[in-house]
What we know:
This protein has helices at about 20-30, 55-60, 75-80, 95-100, 140, 155-165, 185-200, 200-205, 215, 230-240, 260-270; strands spanning about 15, 35-40, 45-55, 85-90, 105-110, 115-120, 150, 170-175, 180-185, 225, 245-250, 255-260. It is an alpha/beta fold and about 270 residues long. The strands form 4 sheets. A 3-stranded mixed sheet has the order 1-2-3. Strands 4-5-6 form a 3-stranded mixed sheet, with no helix packed on it. Strands 7-8-9 form a 3-stranded mixed sheet. The protein has 11 helices and 12 strands. The protein is flat. Helices cover about 35% and strands about 20% of the residues. The longest helix has 14 residues, at about 185-200.
Amino acid sequence: MQIKNIMSEEIVTIDKDQIVFDGLKLMKKHRISRLPVINTNEKHEKELVGIVSEKDIAIKLSSSKYGDLPPSHFHISTVMTKDLITVNKDTDIVETANLLLENHIGGVPIMDDGKIVGIVSKSDFTPTCIGKAYEKILVREIMTTDLVSVFSHDRLMHARRIMLDSKVGRLLISEDNELAGILSSKDIMRAMISFRKEVPPKHQRAQIKECLVEKYMTTNIKKINEKATIAELANDMLETGYNGYPVVNEEDQVVGIITQSDLLALIIELENE
């Protein structure tokens, strides 16, 4: 199957000279997590020059390099990824899935004859996992058991560093040896936006060290049982819009985590058989 069969043809773009807040509004309005970035050249033609995601915004806004900049000065060109990875509309979905996993990215623009014709993200692969083949596979068979977690009283910047070093999009949060919440790239992004709005620039470098995970983590946690099938998980993801779940056993103990990256790896494995 070619990637054009599952890509989203509704392309929401943003100009590189717009500010981050404009991008956040677009993401919220269209319920998406990344935007292709365009620039109008001298011939008044729109050209693709980058891509910006919630994760990009979270990383840049929490970087000490930009510590003194007010939110209104953060242009999309400042936070976007300039080293673009794209695929042709006729590229095989397995090849595209491999590309996403190998580069630790959540989505890519789809091109045809030098023009962007669509965009595909990990979530676009989820409907594939509703098929009969996936009804025979349990969550515990493909979940990640090497859990990456931090404590609720840890500093937010420590959690950000763990997330970057581990190349993961979410962390499990522990409190008194129990699962207390989840911290995602989106949570960090929202935290940084709020922090930069509330704290004067001259105090940000000092006060950012006092931001704790417990203030910004998501506590309304949806879990999934390890005996659920992948088809059930995929249906749940499509209904809720969630892209990752802690996995629990019959005693409600956390035994793993499963994300869309795990689903991509499974799709690749089954398609290659």
